[in-house]
Amino acid sequence: MENLISFAGADIEAGENIVVHGLDMQIAKGELVYIVGKVGSGKTSIIRSITAENPVRSGEASACGFNLRGIRARDIPKLRRSLGVVFQDFRLLMDRSVWENLEFVLKATGWKERRRMDARIDEVLEAVGMATKAHKLPHQLSGGEQQRIAIARALLNEPEVILADEPTGNLDAETAEGILNLLQKLNKENGTTIVMVTHDKTIVERYPGRVFVCADEKCTEQ
User: Which of 4, 32, 171, 219 is deepest in the core (most CB within 10 A)?
Assistant: First the structure.
């Protein structure tokens, strides 16, 4: 199996500081992988290295066929089209409808043809069970519904990998379960690789996958 994400002896930075020393992590297509640890242990910094927000200056690092060491600025948008990112705080545009939020991303990533865009938006809303909410503004939706829209947005460009950074952090237990079931379905049925940052051990127990633990400036597989 090919590795979609690979780190070998890589130091992970946050600002000027190294927060994870010598990261070794290989993630293959179709895997479900957790990165767990306390706040400030470097979990999110690893995600930011995968999306080329954080530079990787030592060791080896690649994601979706792109070398993260010295990736060219013009290649970063192409890398990010291969990655769907879901955040704890949804990050929807509050002054635009659900439909307009998704349309904005398609236009920003180079889609031009109206009919294809419309069809793709319908498809992802259907996939996350939100087909009837396209006309709503984000504030008219519950937290769980907003997170489903955020997942729909992450799916637009058919990414090979979804990076979910504490995707249930702002949700109650019942709503969180719906989101986790949705991510697991994407993993099992579509073969989408999921890399999830969480501090919630119960998630890892209920939805088993590979687990990397960040602690003491290291991140190692459990």
Answer: 219
